[in-house]
Amino acid sequence: MSKISPPHWPYPRWIAHRGAGRLAPENTLAAFRVGAAHGYRMFECDAKLSSDGVVFLMHDTGLDRTTNGHGTGGDQPWGSLAQLDAGSWHSRRFAGEPLPTLERIARWCLANSLHLNIEIKPTPGTERETGRAVALLAARLWQGHTPPLLTSFQPLALEGAREGAPTLPRGLLLDQLHPDWLDTATGLSCVAMVCNHALWDAATVQAVHAAGLRALSYTVNDEWAAERLWGLGTDGIITDRVDLFSPAA
Predict the structure, then answer these.
(1) Residue 165 CB partners (closer than 8 Å, separation 6+)
(2) Which range of residues forms the domain containing residue 199?
(3) 148: domain CATH number?
(4) Is the dihedral of CA 160, 166, 168, 173 positive or negative?
(5) Is 5 part of a structural domain of the chain?
(6) Which of 82, 164, 167, 181 sits 20 to 30 Å CA-CA off 214?
(7) Do the domain assignments include residue 198?
(8) Mean pLDDT, rounded, for 144-171
(9) 6 within some domain
């Protein structure tokens, strides 16, 4: 297979997971501020839809782990979600930290010249709708700026994102290599594969690069793993350990 020159890649190599990994409550503005204080210039976050169509940041389908709420986040209107405490579960320092909307995070990133990787994390059954909504909002907010990278484990969410804003860059997330993994990514016009770091070896990196895609890894928290990935020629690492890895490396 002949190698295809990958498209211009405007993003840093190091990406802070959910804002600041584990140093602050994930997917909150406080976490982004902590990550930025450690020198990170790009952040990963999770986005889903409220019942009334507001794109907000949260990883889990349920509210219980990271807020003082209960039930399914996507089943509630933004007015209710905005009242929740998304910081006390982490530590007293962050008590009262709210769930942010994607728009709030976007405006903060743009004001500080920071990059974003938005993982589309739909409530089950809303994959295409969520992908489309995230992409439409991102296209509007980042108009004239380096766009965010939109990623998802859900091909339907990436299809929705392509329908909503076809020019925004997309990446397929994988935790295992199913037989048609690369065909799925190219069929969705992705620019990147974002894999569990253990999946990468010389052959998979070569195949991805030959297809003109970038090779990114999650979630890398050990030095030996990072060194292995850079040795393989991968293009980006998502980490919780913003206190361990220098983003200037």
Answers:
(1) 135, 136, 138, 139
(2) 14-239
(3) 3.20.20.190
(4) positive
(5) no
(6) 164
(7) yes
(8) 98
(9) no
For residue 14, the 8-state DSSP code is E
59 is catalytic: yes
Q: Tens digit of pLDDT for each residue in 206-221? A: 999 999 999 999 999 9
| CA pair distance 109, 90, nearest whole angstrom | 23
* Per-residue DSSP letter, 168: S
Question: Structural domain tally of the chain?
Answer: 1
- The catalytic position among 8, 38, 59, 90 is 59
Helices 102-111 and 127-141: crossing angle in degrees, nearest 10, is 30
Give the CA angle between residues 140, 24, 106 to the nearest 5°: 10
Assigned domain for 9 exists: no
CA distance 44 to 33: 13
The question of whether 17 is a catalytic residue gets the answer yes
Provide the sign of the torsion angle of the four alpha carbons 102, 104, 105, 111, taken in this order. positive
* Geometric angle at alpha carbon 173, from 155 and 74, rounded to 5°: 65
Catalytic: which of 17, 90, 115, 209?
17
pTM above 0.90, yes or no: yes
Structure tokens at 196: 């569990």
Q: Are 49 and 122 in contact (CB under 8 A)?
A: yes
Nearest-5° Cα angle at 150, 247 to 223: 30
With 70 as the cut, is the pLDDT of residue 5 above it?
no
> Which residue from 30, 36, 35, 44 is spatially nearest to 92, judged by alpha carbons?
30
